[in-house]
Specification:
Layout (H helix, E strand, L loop, with lengths): L11 H10 L2 E8 L2 E8 L1 E5 L2 E9 L13 E6 L4 E2 L12 E2 L1 E13 L2 H15 L4 H6 L2 H8 L2 E16 L6 H12 L4 H17 L1
Helix pairs in contact: 5-6
């Protein structure tokens, strides 16, 4: 990913927090020299100082058959609002698109141990809907076993992170505040969320 120096995000804590908040990622692999992608929910964790991305394919999705062959790329992105040149102080300007994007690369391993699969499913439930856990606990064991046979669980040990924050950092501070205020006042959820990241960035500049 092309990242100008002023857009480079290097804070590990911020990167992990972003991936956890916007954890519906896109995993990209290659088959016969063509990219293949699937959109999946991920669990983001740390183990032995490594970032681990965990998710699962439906077994009928053949992408899982190639995921251990080469490195995979997982993309996390959102929010991403359009920035109008009307928010700039001078007329000679063009629009842009503010966003945060994380590209995580790593080698994949398919998880086959049944106990480990069960634990990962429970962690996924706890991460996305803890209130569903009581219902899950009441489901018949054979139903859960049948469901687990229909998925392929995998984890990726991340060995390279590329992280970008496009938050109008190159603009004068007054313009950045104007853009942030406009986004914050919007009814659009992408714009509101991005304004929060701009607010943090502007706070760090003070």
């Amino acid at each position: 990913m092309y990242i100008p120096k002023h857009n480079l995000l290097t804070d590990r804590g911020e990167i992990i927090a972003f991936m956890k908040k916007f954890s519906f990622g896109t995993v990209i692999t290659a088959k016969d020299k063509l990219p293949v992608a699937t959109h999946l929910p991920f669990l983001i964790s740390e183990r032995d100082n490594e970032i681990i991305l965990t998710s699962h394919f439906a077994k009928v999705n053949s992408q899982w058959k190639d995921i251990e062959c080469n490195k995979s790329l997982v993309i996390f992105t959102e929010p991403h609002p359009y920035i109008s040149p009307q928010l700039y102080e001078t007329e000679i300007n063009v629009p842009t698109w503010n966003h945060v994007a994380i590209h995580a690369y790593g080698q994949c391993e398919i998880i086959k141990d049944e106990d480990q699969l069960y634990q990962i499913l429970e962690k996924t439930i706890e991460s996305y809907e803890i209130s569903y856990k009581l219902q899950w606990d009441r489901l018949p064991h054979d139903y859960k076993t049948k469901m687990m046979k229909g998925i392929v669980v995998f984890e990726i040990k991340v060995d390279e992170i590329q992280a970008k924050e496009q938050l109008s950092q190159y603009k004068p501070v007054a313009e950045q505040f104007k853009i942030m205020s406009s986004l914050e006042a919007s009814d659009n959820s992408h714009e509101k969320r991005l304004s929060a990241y701009m607010k943090i960035n502007l706070g760090e500049m003070k």
